[in-house]
Amino acid sequence: MATAAGDLRALASEGQVFLMNDNKNLQRTPAFSAALAGLFGFLMKYSAYNFLTGVVLLCFSALAFAYITFIGPRVSFLKYLAFLLPIDSHGTATIGASDILRVFSLLSLIFMILAITGTTLTRGLRKVISPAPPADGVDNSGPANTRSIRQLIRAGTRRFIIGCAAITLFFLAAFIAIPHAKLAEGTSPIAMFALFGLFYLLALVSNGVYTLLDVVSDGLLDWARVNFPWPLEQDRVM
Fold first, then answer.
1. What confidence category does residue 88 fall into, taking pLDDT thresholds of 50, 70 and 90?
2. Which of helix, strand or coil describes residue 238?
3. What would the DSSP string read from start to end of 66-114?
4. I need a labelling partner for 190 at 20 to 30 A (CA). Which of 36, 88, 141, 208 fits?
5. Which pTM value belongs to this model?
6. Measuring CA to CA, which residue among 196, 39, 213 is closest to residue 111?
7. Which long-range contacts (C-beta less than 8 Å, at least 24 apart) are formed by 90-98?
8. How far apart are CA 142 and CA 64, in angstroms?
9. Beta-carbon neighbour count of residue 130 at 10 Å?
10. Are 215 and 153 in contact (CB under 8 A)?
11. Tell me: the pLDDT tens digits for 129-149?
12. What's the angle, vertex CA 72, arms to CA 103 and CA 162, rounded to 5?
């Protein structure tokens, strides 16, 4: 009897060790998957904001053309972009391919950081103003649940429509300015209409790609945020 009891205790001890190791493996798997999803989400979001930067620069070219046509060639507001462009004290800029790439990458990074910061602050304020009531006495103050696919698509569609409307307004100003612009000798207004028409199509396509990538990255980041085993959550569970 004593030998049998000892064997049972040994089996129980081995079973506990096996279950503990199995639980550790199960905890590592969602942590790795969530970290990988978060990494891909950030990379995809940075790619999305590269397309958004292209949209911004194309719209800026249309707006600058309209500004120079109706107001004049003195573009004094460029001095506020001196931290991005090599502009001297006289307002003259010498811009090369490396300067354009540097500005493009920096603007993409700034847009992404601002977007992530704004989303985080909005989520935090919403959580403080209207916290979700605990269900059955359980504390649900951990990471918020992921947004549904329908919510992400609805938000992306709204963003796409607003972006297309803004792009259309900017390029409409450029199209209105073309007949009044002092073009270089040998340049016809038809060529300018074709050029800005091409820019307009590129901006619309880039806006669509940006919206699609941003929606997918939001879904990945939401899933990673909820499924990552945060230390505070594990302390509450224990």
1. low
2. coil
3. HHHHHT-S--GGGGGGTTTS-B-TTS-B---HHHHHHHHHHHHHHHHHH
4. 208
5. 0.70
6. 213
7. none
8. 47
9. 8
10. yes
11. 876 555 544 444 444 455 778
12. 55
